[in-house]
Design goal:
This protein is an alpha/beta fold and about 230 residues long. It is built from six helices and 13 strands. Bound molecules: ribulose-5-phosphate.
Length: about 230
């Protein structure tokens, strides 16, 4: 089974979790897009759902598939958010932002009663920052200073560049992304998240701690593993 097939399985499992009448937040990325496709099959026309998207790309896909997406409203809270991840640690701490949507994803996750993450098996890691860099969204003006500070602190930061133009990738918020490569991974994700977020010019990090409630993992044997936080695990 290819990794993409595992993503399809995980995405479908996450979509299977959605009930009619729910307020839904949608993440970004290829696995989430498989979940969106499954949702469009399960709820044709989407009129039983109230959906907010974490990116222009997700909004476009959902709309093309007939799922109406609305803007964020003042009183918004969500029953459920479906998203992917770049790394999932045993504590269910996540690295996210491979698709550059980390700010909106974390913003919506914090407003969601349940965050369901769908991944293929390659995303399970023993420690964050070992298989994927840690992305941070930054204000472009602050880039030079932050590159210097983060290099001094041993994070080997790299400005995320567009493969075609070579210029900086801009997020949907008009900001840039620095990818951090901590030498031996991240021992304390919550602490690193706090340390990075207080640096002037940092908007948000791709470290998600204590936010994920349920992980669906597509496995090479064609099954889906469900992982819950250890205190609620069956
Ligand atoms: C986007 C994300 C994605 O969820 C993450 O990069 C995983 O993507 P994919 O499902 O394509 O592997 O955080 O900002």
């Amino acid at each position: 089974m290819e990794v993409d097939d595992e993503k399809v399985l995980a995405g479908r499992a996450a979509a299977g979790h959605v009930r009619a009448g729910q307020r839904l937040a949608l993440g970004t990325g290829s696995t989430t897009s498989f979940a969106i496709r499954a949702l469009a099959e399960k709820f044709p026309g989407g009129d039983q759902l109230s959906i907010v998207a974490s990116s222009v790309a997700t909004e476009r896909l959902a709309t093309e598939l007939g799922l109406p997406v609305r803007p964020l409203e003042p009183g918004d809270h969500f029953d459920l958010m479906i998203d992917g991840a770049d790394e999932v640690a045993p504590t269910l701490a996540l690295t996210k932002g491979g698709g550059g949507a980390l700010f909106r994803e974390k913003f919506l996750a914090r407003l969601s009663q349940e965050l369901v993450i769908a991944v293929d098996h390659t995303k399970l890691v023993s420690k964050l920052g070992t298989h994927h860099p840690i992305p941070i969204e930054i204000v472009p003006f602050a880039r030079a200073k932050l590159l210097h500070q983060l290099t001094e602190r041993g994070f080997s930061p790299r400005l995320r560049a567009d493969r075609t133009s070579g210029g900086p990738v801009l997020t949907d918020n008009g900001n840039e992304i620095l990818d951090l490569y901590p030498e031996n991974g991240v021992d304390d994700p919550a602490r690193l998240d706090r340390e990075l977020r207080v640096m002037p010019g940092v908007i948000e990090t791709g470290i998600f701690v204590g936010l994920a409630h349920r992980i669906y993992v597509g496995l090479p044997d064609g099954t889906v593993q469900e992982i819950l936080p250890s205190n609620t695990s069956a």
